[in-house]
UniProtKB/TrEMBL annotation:
<dbReference type="GO" id="GO:0030126">
    <property type="term" value="C:COPI vesicle coat"/>
</dbReference>
<keyword id="KW-0653">Protein transport</keyword>
<keyword id="KW-0931">ER-Golgi transport</keyword>
<dbReference type="GO" id="GO:0006888">
    <property type="term" value="P:endoplasmic reticulum to Golgi vesicle-mediated transport"/>
</dbReference>
<keyword id="KW-0813">Transport</keyword>
<dbReference type="GO" id="GO:0006891">
    <property type="term" value="P:intra-Golgi vesicle-mediated transport"/>
</dbReference>
<dbReference type="GO" id="GO:0000139">
    <property type="term" value="C:Golgi membrane"/>
</dbReference>
<keyword id="KW-0968">Cytoplasmic vesicle</keyword>
<dbReference type="InterPro" id="IPR006822">
    <property type="entry name" value="Coatomer_esu"/>
</dbReference>
<protein>
    <recommendedName>
        <fullName>Coatomer subunit epsilon</fullName>
    </recommendedName>
</protein>
<keyword id="KW-0333">Golgi apparatus</keyword>
<keyword id="KW-0472">Membrane</keyword>
<dbReference type="GO" id="GO:0006890">
    <property type="term" value="P:retrograde vesicle-mediated transport, Golgi to endoplasmic reticulum"/>
</dbReference>
<comment type="function">
    <text>The coatomer is a cytosolic protein complex that binds to dilysine motifs and reversibly associates with Golgi non-clathrin-coated vesicles, which further mediate biosynthetic protein transport from the ER, via the Golgi up to the trans Golgi network. The coatomer complex is required for budding from Golgi membranes, and is essential for the retrograde Golgi-to-ER transport of dilysine-tagged proteins.</text>
</comment>
<dbReference type="GO" id="GO:0015031">
    <property type="term" value="P:protein transport"/>
</dbReference>
<comment type="similarity">
    <text>Belongs to the COPE family.</text>
</comment>
<dbReference type="InterPro" id="IPR011990">
    <property type="entry name" value="TPR-like_helical_dom_sf"/>
</dbReference>
Amino acid sequence: MAMAPDVLFNLRNNFYLGAYQAAINNSDIPNLSEDDAIERDCLVYRSYIALGSYQLVINEVDSSAATPLQAVKLLALYLFSPDNKESAISSIKEWLGDAAIGNNPILRLIAGTIFMHEQDYNEALKYTNAGGTMELYALNVHIFLKMNRSDYAEKQLRVMQQIDEDHTLTQLATAWLNLAVGGSKIQEAYLIFQDFSEKYQMTSLILNGKAVCCMHMGNFDEAESFLLEALNKDAKDRETLANLVVCCLHLGKPSARFLSQLKLSDPEHMLVKRGLTAEENFDRAMQTVG
């Protein structure tokens, strides 16, 4: 019996690769089942969150919405204002402790995302480590790499490869791990991002991936051109701005304007907190890349 087509494939793919506006624009998919409609709405609202439209999500998701949508609203509240952080964390812990909804994969994913923002990686893993969806496995890879545990990240990646080696998230996770391992693996990571750029719409995420690979290989001029292209797509993207600061420091070009923009976009960013201003800080800056 032929498998039913995956009606949300393109929407998911756009979201995973950072084509958030395209995900929103192409989300009007007819005849969805109730579960697919909820997943579609979650992806659309998470795309709005990625674009910084927190208030829209907070306003549109009401108290009668399904648990996954409530979880996405909590993420919007958490990111919208520092004043909301405590109550958002308290709510998500309460929901995770509720036997009826606590194992919901989107709720666990959002919990992992919030605790990763808090840099409380062990707390994040409490809810994500069991996996169960490709997004949860990919988040685990991300968390383990943040903890400098590439050995654990590799185990999670193997699980993803067994499920679907060609999945966009498997390919992305492979690139992240290759960047962390370094050496000859950097070129392999670059080829993954290059493959994405040939198959799909070019996004800031793909351009930043290529740029970080170039920086690790010492090709800073090429990295700068990718990052300026990414900046044209989204002038407020924190990854682009942070990578441009690092790139300019190495090229001996002024980076103060990008650092100022980064302060506005993400006052909590590591580069902002460290107050990187001089080229001798380049090695420290490189540690924040990837």
